[in-house]
Amino acid sequence: MAVIVRLATETFAPEGELAGFMRGLANAEAGAVANFVGIARSRSGTGEEVTALFLEHHPRLTLPSLEQVGRDAVGCFALSDVKIVHRCGTVAPGEPIVLVAAAAAHRRAALTAVDYMMDRLKSEAVFWKREDGPAGSVWIEPTDQDRTDLERWSEACPE
Amino acid sequence: MRIGFFGKLRDALGDECELAAEEGETVARLRNRLADLHHQADRELLGPRVRACVDGVIVGDDFLLTGQEQIEFLPPLSGG
Hints:
The complex is a heterodimer of chains A (159) and B (80). Chain A is of the alpha+beta class and 159 residues long. Chain A has helices at 14-23, 62-77, 107-124, 144-151; strands spanning 2-8, 32-39, 52-57, 81-87, 89-91, 96-104, 127-133, 136-140.
């Protein structure tokens, strides 16, 4: 079982991260790998132009919060391997913000684990996200939808 | 004691401030004192989703401070 977590201070190539993940799979019995890449958009939720996304992190709490999400996913979905790469700092539109990948014996566990990890990261990863644009800067907070998404897992994967 | 801020609280209050602890002060009392000192951020400081972190551990409003701790106030998180 391997949980690989990285806080990226510069932009990263999701395809390279995924290739590295697949090369390093700890369990040759893994029959499925699923992944998700989140990308910075050029428009806010309300349609305003976004020229940059700024992800502030905490020097001590951010990395452990990512590791916790990865470990919980392994425990809940019997994964053999997990990888989380999360950007911090200034992210330009079109650049990746986050990559999560999960390896399991079968596809359902891998696909569900990726969905689970993203819901956890949205509300529990220690970041503060700000959208910068011509109209000014706005700090983003979890939405009711984000909280509802997280609650979906309260029975299947209690923390 | 040193008090640090993140996210929108940092915008409103700066990276950190220094404040002497009062005897028997709880996190809740400290929040109220900060809100009195910084009216421009009182709503953020007193918001129920802003959490306090003492020496790297998230604590509740009733946590008792000695004045020796590193305290940070964390606005709602938004990763992913």
